[in-house]
Amino acid sequence: MKRIVFLIQDQPNWTGGPIINVRRLLPALKAEGYTILAPTGYRQDAPNARFLEEQGISCPLFALPAATEDYVAWILAQVLAFKPDVFIGDTHVAGGYALKYLNEWGIPSIVMARSVDAYNTEIARTFFIQNSAYRAHALVCVNQNIANNLAKLPDARPALIKVIPSGGPISPFIATYQHSPFKLVYAGVLRDEPKRLLKLWDAFVFAQETMPELELTFIGDGPLRPDLELRIQQAGLNHKVTFTGVLHDERYKEMLARHQALLLFSDFEGTPGSVMDAMSCGVVPLCRKIYGIDFLIKDGQNGLLFDGTNEDFLAKLQVLRMESNWQHFSKQTKQDFDAQFSLPTVVQRWQALMENLMVNSSKFAQAVLPSKIHLPAVKFHLANADRRKDWYNKILRGIYVVIQRMKK
After folding, report:
1. Do the Cβ atoms of 305 and 329 come closer than 8 Å?
2. What pLDDT, on the 0 to 100 scale, is given for residue 13?
């Protein structure tokens, strides 16, 4: 039986794409015969780790925040006890810094890039492209645009960059058309950056003047919720807006399928899970035109893209409200999801990659836990996720974090 270590992180009320991906992918891989260990760095609580435990996936816990040196040492201890065939560090800094020792032990490894932002690009550069000691054997990108972007970097090894979308289960719940109310939904973390939820709210209020039959649902939770609730009350639109809180699995899909359009106003995304989930239900995506979104949405075929202005949002919404248009988009978006982004398709891609890495591997040659973890200097774009023990890197990290906040 093949054995996988898949590093994850967890916290309460987290509805971000990476954890949703993990909740779906790991049980699906287990069903294909893999034995999986998911070492979990957590803050405050680990509800998603408990969910995975219920699916028969072991999730040992490590409390965060913590020094990266301690986190790396703990990961290595988990690996040495479990003896996996493949290690997947996802986008986690500590997982990347564990690679030096895993390479010495002969364990094939994978890191991931989930966005074109500076953090994900630096993960790929540091742990796949530049440093041979900390170099993973393969890089998984969640869409083709990310892969193309990273393949342009010097020494990128494009043959070892694989595109595997996050994927989602085929939905038993399918949306139907209704003219009034015409229901819009946002699904994900309730925060403004990079989701631009305040712009989404402004656009909804703007569209209400022309289309009073619109209703809006927020699925998820996050720090912006009190602000949104206040704005809704001030606009007198409480009867038009619903907050569901965090929903998972069938409850989530059932709620999505009660709507006609999924809204996305983000500044950037990897492969947005909420869009794929909507597609699986035949809910039509109406998304801001951002880099990489065309990996999922073909404008005018399986959804609609708008330029970010309230006027264009309203224009595209009026096109979508026409029943014949909605029926066409809904049918096509469901077909595209099933063929390209469904969980069975994604699992096959992961299996093919891991099977290829397992060939000719020489696992656990000279496998000894290091007495002390030595790490290179903190990287600017990784500083938020990289706490250190020594005074020099503590100061360096602090400077980098302040500069990043000032830039924002």
Report:
1. no
2. 81
* Contact call for residues 201 and 231 (beta carbons, < 8 A): yes
Cα 386 to Cα 65: distance, rounded to the nearest angstrom: 9
Torsion angle of alpha carbons 240, 246, 247, 252, nearest 10°?
Answer: 50
Residue 117 CB neighbour total at 10 angstroms: 17
Q: How many domains does the chain have?
A: 3
Element containing residue 335 per DSSP (H, E): helix 323-336
What is the number of alpha carbons within 13 Å of residue 351 lying toward its C-beta? 14
Structure tokens at 60: 């040992």
Contact 388, 93 (CB under 8 A): no
Q: List pLDDT tens digits, range 28-37.
A: 999 999 999 9
CB 281 within 8 A of CB 256: yes
Alpha-carbon Rg for the chain in angstroms: 22
Token pair 């170099």: residue: 135
The span from the CA of 126 to the CA of 144, in Å, is 20
Cis geometry, peptide bond prior to residue 194 (ω within 30 degrees of 0):
yes
Question: H-helix or E-strand containing 332?
Answer: helix 323-336
- Rounded to whole angstroms, the Cα distance separating 273 from 289 reads 16
β partners of residue 35: 3
Rounded Cα–Cα distance for residues 176 and 247 (Å): 21
Same domain, 187 and 304: yes
CATH number at residue 156: 3.40.50.2000
Residue 177 belongs to some domain of the structure = no
Based on the fold, state whether residues 156 and 102 are members of the same structural domain: yes
Neighbouring CB atoms inside 10 A of 359's CB total 7
Residue 108: pLDDT over 80: yes
Span 62-82, average pLDDT: 97
